[in-house]
Amino acid sequence: MHDVDGEKPIYIQIADWLENAIIDGTLQVDEKVYSQYQLAELFTINPATAGKGLTILLEAELVYKKRGLGMFVAPDAQEKLRAKRKEQTLLQIVQDLLNEASLLNIGTDELNQIIEKERKQRKGDQT
Amino acid sequence: MTVISMKHVSKNYSRIAALTDLTVKIEENVITGIVGRNGAGKTTLLKMIAGFQKATKGELRVFDENPFRSLLVSANSIYIDDAMSYPGSMKLHELLDEFNRFYANWNEELAVRLMEYFSIPLNSRHRFLSKGKRSTFNAIVGIAARCPLTIFDEPTTGMDTAARNDFYRALLKDYIAFPRTILLSSHYIDEMKDVLEDLLVIHRKRIRYHGSISDLQEAHLSLRGSSEQLSGSTLGKIIVSKTTRGLQEEWIVENDFSDAERAELNRQGITNTTVSLNDAYLALTEQPRGGIDDVFNA
Q1: Which pLDDT score, from 0 to 100, does residue B205 have?
Q2: What is the CATH superfamily name and number for domain B2-212?
């Protein structure tokens, strides 16, 4: 069987992994990011591939370079990533949700009820 | 720096063509995977590069020399396959000593440590090892030789899964410590894809693709839905393969879709994802449509 999510190129997986580390605070602002060789060792991947993953973060200005020292987390990286996830990942999930809902003949009201019910349950769990 | 360069290289065995009109450049310190179906010409290509066989036509240069009968290429390259033969009277540690004498960058300590790790006794002889252990020993030689041009032709044949993983990791770690140009061939693209930078696909005696592994992967998109849905959404697109997967169709298409076009696919409920490297490779080398199913539908 095929993985429904397909298979992302490795350098994108590396970029995703680093972005997750920034979003969840594992990598803090101004903290040094793994070098391409550290990433290559960590995941047993080609250093050029790891470098490509880092370049994505650099081009999105999520990290900045200090000459001879490596790359560091940009001050507004977390904020930028949240906005990006909202526009891309969340939108994709909403599209999937609407596809499934139309398949099951579930209208907007019923869908909202399901979301509201789930949300309440979560709040209940947290208290 | 270019380590290997070919211009219109062909190789014939008597009158039968093994490779036709290859033009390619391989740069220094890149790990390139060589893949192709059985009989595509992988081994012939690697043996020509190593200088074991002579090109019939065209210009082949390795370290700027014709590799055939070149001492420079011989001293700076190593070719490892599963048919390595050593003098039967020599013990493995004696073989290691000989490699030490021949290869300028040979790392004896690394070789011995890897032998211990893979439980290959230094006192045994190559022909008494199991098939998997023989391959492992050959692979250790290939890594420890640290040759500027290191060629592995199906190095993992006979190795178990754990040994395969260990081999690729050992190769990668030593490559990071001591970068060199590496050519790796395997029938299993998935087991080696992580350590590769580039891929060279040989198909029907010709080069079908040479470039980075991610570019190949991203050049294709897999679409899943009903065949009506897919026909409607792929007007003007190049369809590489069509496969029936249960009640759905999966079409692999060349990826020139814009973000807006992909969003539209999502809206229509057509699953669209990047293909795996293996699927991208298969799309390049399989029969255009139907494949094995056609044999049974005759």
Answers
A1: 93
A2: P-loop containing nucleotide triphosphate hydrolases (3.40.50.300)
